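Technical note accompanying the year-one report. For the benefit of new consortium partners, we illustrate the data format agreed upon in the data management plan: each record pairs a sequence with a C-alpha cell string. No post-processing was applied to the example shown here.
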Amino acid sequence: MLKTFPAVAALVVAGALVLPTVSQAEAANSVRVSYADLNLASDAGATVLQRRIAYAARLACEFEDSRQIPLEKATNLCRSDAIEGVRPAYDEAVAAARHGTVTVGSAAALIVTAR
C-alpha cells in the first residue's frame, strides 16, 4: 500500500504539469508541458520530458472517435507531427541543461500543438 502512494503522487503531479491551453489558432489544440521540476541534464529527466510530450500529443490530437480507421490514421499522423514539431524546442532545452544553462519558472515549458 505504501509503495503505491509515490506512484499515485507522481501521476497526479505529471497530470498537473501537462496543462491543456486554449489556442488562438484555428482548429489547433495546444498543450503546455512544464519541465520546471526536471533535471534535463540527466537521461532520466530527458526521458520523463519525452513521455510528457507524447502524453500532450495524445491530448492535443484527440478526435471524436479515433477507433474508426480513417480517424485512427489521422490521429496517429497528428500525434507524430505534434511530437516532431516540438522536437527542436526539446533538443534546445536538453542541450541548454547539459551545458549548464538553467531555465526557471514559466519559461521552463514547451507547447505541443496539433495541426
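Partners are asked to follow this layout when depositing records. The chain has a mean pLDDT of 78.
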